[in-house]
Amino acid sequence: MTLDELIKSKGFMISFVQMQLGMKKWNFWNKKKDPENSFSIAELRKIAEIIGVDEAAVFEAVKSNTKGTQKQNGD
């Protein structure tokens, strides 16, 4: 499950989570897609708190995003 899927599965809109983190849409998207500019641990914990899930679920979702991006890039 990707981060987007996790957020939506808990009934939240991605834009709401972005606003709660104080991020612009492009910055949030870039952090999801670029492993070198990924979310900080504090941001991941905040996402978990916002959507009401265990931190491990958010870490796994971000890991899924990274794997999916690598496949799309042909790595």
Based on the model shown, name its key terms.
71% helix; 5 helices; single chain; mainly alpha; 75 residues; globular
Notes on the protein architecture:
- The protein has helices spanning 3-9, 14-21, 25-33, 41-51, 55-72.
- The chain has five helices and no strands.
- The chain is mainly alpha-helical and 75 residues long.
- It is globular.
- The mean pLDDT is 86.
Please sum up the structure shown:
This protein is mostly helical and 75 residues long. The protein has helices at 3-9, 14-21, 25-33, 41-51, 55-72.
List strands and helices in order, with pairings:
Elements (H helix, E strand, L loop, with lengths): L2 H7 L4 H8 L3 H9 L7 H11 L3 H18 L3
Approximate helicity band: over 70%
Instruction: State the major sheet.
Output: none
Q: How many distinct beta strands?
A: 0
Overall SS class: mainly alpha
* Amino-to-carboxy terminus distance: 20 Å
Our Rg estimate from Cα atoms comes to: 12 Å
- Give the mean pLDDT: 86
Number of helices: 5
Taken as a percent bin, the fraction of beta residues is: under 5%
| Overall morphology | globular
Q: Tell me the series of helices and strands, N- to C-terminal.
A: HHHHH
Q: Ranges with pLDDT <50 over ≥5 residues?
A: none
